[in-house]
C-alpha cells in the first residue's frame, strides 16, 4: 500500500498476554481468565504513529453464572480455544533512540471451538486499548510490555445472546525491527498549511470539574470530565497555531473531533505563553465508543483558556493549560446522557515538534 512507503521501520513482534476479569460483575459472574499468544507485522512512521496487523491464539478458562431466577444460580464451565486476527493502531507519544512510550488500541475477530462465553456464539470481537513501553536491547531488538483494558462480545447488542466479557491484562514481548529508507514526505493537503514553520503532535490529559453553583447540583450529571486528546498542530511564523485533534472522554462515554486555534503571545527560546479556543463535535452514550449506536446523542464541546509551554529537549515541550469549557444542548436520542454543562479545568500535554 502506498501509505506504507513512508514508514521508516518495519518490524515483526510477538508477545504473550494474560487477562483477568474486571472486579465487580465480571469477576462474580464471568470469572474467566484469558491467555493470548500473538504475532504481528508492524509499520512504524517517523513521527510516532504505527500500524500493526496481528494473528493470535487465545485460550479461555473459567466459569460463567448461568441465567436463572434461583437465589444461587449455578456456575457452568466456560472454556474455549480461539484463533483470530485484526488491526491495531499505536501512538508512540514519546520516543528516543533507546526507548518509546506508547498508547494503542486494536480490534480483532476470532473464531472459537465452542460458544464463548458459554451460551453465546463461537465468533466474537476482541477489543483492547491501553499503553506500554518499548526498550531497545540491541540494534534490531526491542523488549515491550503493555497494560490493556479488553472487551469481548459478538456485536449482537445487549441481551442473553451476547454475554460480553471485560478484563484487564499485561503483555510481555519481543520485537525485531528492520530499517527502511522512506520516500520523501509529501506536502500537506492544504496550501495554507505549507506555510507552517513548525509541525507537531500533542498528547494531552485533561480534567474538568463543574462550575460552582448550578452545575454542581444538576441531578443527572454531577461527575467531572476526564479526557485523552491526540492533536496535530501547525505553527506559523506570525505566532498563530492551528490544531486538529480527536478526544475520548471518560464520563458517560464520549468521543469527539474538532479544531483549536492558538495565539502564542510570547515566544522565547524555551518558553511560550499562549491563549487558545476550540470546539469539538461529540458523540455521546455509545457503549462501543466510535461505533454509532441507536441510543447515541450528539453535542458540541466548547473550550477556551491559556497556558504555557516549556521546551524540555530539542523536539519535546511540556505544556499546561487552564480552560473554561461548556457542553451545549445537543440532539439525538442519547442527548440525556450528556446534558448542558459548564466547567473549568487543566490539561497537561507532551508536544513532539518537527520541521
Describe this structure in words.
There is one protein chain. With 355 residues, the chain is mainly β. It has 2 domains: 2-179, Porin, CATH 2.40.160.20; 191-354, Porin (Beta Barrel). It contains 1 helix and 17 strands. It has one helix at 25-29, and strands spanning 9-21, 30-44, 49-65, 75-77, 80-95, 99-116, 121-136, 141-153, 165-179, 198-210, 225-235, 240-250, 254-267, 271-284, 297-311, 316-327, 341-354. The chain has an 8-stranded antiparallel β-barrel. The chain has an 8-stranded antiparallel beta barrel with strand order 10-11-12-13-14-15-16-17. A hairpin with a 4-residue loop joins β6 (99-116) and β7 (121-136). The model has no long low-confidence stretch (mean pLDDT 87).
Short description:
With 355 residues, the protein is mainly β. It has one helix at residues 25-29, and strands at 9-21, 30-44, 49-65, 75-77, 80-95, 99-116, 121-136, 141-153, 165-179, 198-210, 225-235, 240-250, 254-267, 271-284, 297-311, 316-327, 341-354. Strand 5 (80-95) and strand 6 (99-116) form a beta hairpin.
Amino acid at each position: 500500500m502506498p501509505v506504507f512507503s513512508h514508514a521508516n521501520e518495519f518490524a515483526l513482534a510477538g508477545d504473550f498476554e494474560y487477562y483477568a476479569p474486571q472486579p465487580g460483575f465480571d469477576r462474580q459472574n464471568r470469572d474467566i481468565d484469558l491467555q493470548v499468544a500473538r504475532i504481528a507485522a508492524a509499520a512504524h512512521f517517523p513521527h510516532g504513529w504505527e500500524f500493526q496487523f496481528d494473528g493470535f491464539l487465545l485460550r479461555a478458562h473459567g466459569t460463567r453464572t448461568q441465567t436463572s431466577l434461583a437465589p444461587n444460580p449455578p456456575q457452568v464451565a466456560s472454556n474455549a480455544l480461539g484463533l483470530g486476527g485484526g488491526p491495531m493502531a499505536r501512538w508512540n507519544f514519546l520516543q528516543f533512540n533507546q526507548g518509546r512510550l506508547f498508547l494503542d488500541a486494536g480490534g480483532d475477530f476470532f473464531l472459537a471451538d465452542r460458544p464463548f462465553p458459554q451460551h453465546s456464539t463461537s465468533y466474537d470481537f476482541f477489543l483492547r486499548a491501553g499503553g506500554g513501553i518499548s526498550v531497545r536491547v540491541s540494534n534490531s531488538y526491542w523488549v515491550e510490555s503493555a497494560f490493556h483494558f479488553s472487551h469481548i462480545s459478538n456485536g449482537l447488542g445487549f441481551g442473553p445472546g451476547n454475554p460480553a466479557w471485560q478484563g484487564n491484562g499485561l503483555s510481555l514481548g519481543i520485537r525485531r525491527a528492520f530499517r527502511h529508507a522512506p520516500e520523501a514526505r509529501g506536502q500537506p493537503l492544504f496550501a495554507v498549511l505549507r506555510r507552517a514553520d513548525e509541525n507537531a503532535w500533542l498528547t494531552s490529559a485533561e480534567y474538568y470539574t463543574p462550575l460552582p453553583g448550578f452545575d454542581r447540583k444538576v441531578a443527572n450529571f454531577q461527575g467531572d470530565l476526564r479526557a485523552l486528546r491526540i492533536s496535530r498542530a501547525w505553527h506559523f511564523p506570525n505566532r498563530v497555531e492551528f490544531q486538529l485533534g480527536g478526544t475520548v472522554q471518560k464520563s458517560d462515554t464520549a468521543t469527539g473531533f474538532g479544531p483549536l486555534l492558538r495565539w502564542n503571545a510570547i515566544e522565547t527560546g524555551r518558553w511560550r505563553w499562549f491563549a487558545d479556543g476550540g470546539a469539538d463535535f461529540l458523540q455521546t452514550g455509545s457503549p462501543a465508543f466510535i461505533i454509532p449506536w441507536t441510543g447515541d446523542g450528539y453535542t458540541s464541546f466548547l473550550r477556551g483558556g491559556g497556558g504555557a509551554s516549556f521546551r524540555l529537549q530539542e523536539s519535546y515541550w511540556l505544556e499546561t493549560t487552564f480552560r473554561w469549557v461548556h457542553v451545549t444542548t445537543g440532539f439525538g436520542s442519547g442527548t440525556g446522557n450528556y446534558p448542558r454543562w459548564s466547567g473549568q479545568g487543566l490539561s497537561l500535554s507532551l508536544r513532539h515538534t518537527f520541521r
